[in-house]
């Protein structure tokens, strides 16, 4: 995988973590146990430190970076959706950052909060625990329901399972030229978008 040292600092990856070969890690990056780092994620620790705590995940095309002297942190079981940008901020334990959201310097996302897709969280904003945050600029909309918080936990567990699956079975291959008869599908009981989960409740 593309890991680079700079000024003598090398990334650290726990052996139970999975970092995709097409992710890029530079310098002062710490990836903890059971973490998942998706393809094309960029974790650039050439100014400030980048930390993924245990069981967290950061998905495709996400960026983590920060100013000198700062730590950009995803705490335990944090979940960062595709295309999000985290700059010099802290994502609290069990919090979720939606796709293409931007979290700016010194912002803090509280434990078990959800930042909606495409939200822009301004520098220095502090989100309490258990809130739904949305908008550009982001505002606290309301408390999260128990169903929403449970849905987030289930989604993060899927990525923790994906870490195990990827370590065990992901490998380069030659593609087939046509689809085989009876091609299997991945099936994960109960794993659905939140909108569908709400319909079923």
From TrEMBL:
It comes from the Bacteria. It holds the Pfam family Hexapep. PANTHER family: DYNACTIN SUBUNIT P25, GAMMA CARBONIC ANHYDRASE-LIKE 1, MITOCHONDRIAL-RELATED. This is Phenylacetic acid degradation protein PaaY. It comes from Parazoarcus communis. The gene is paaY.
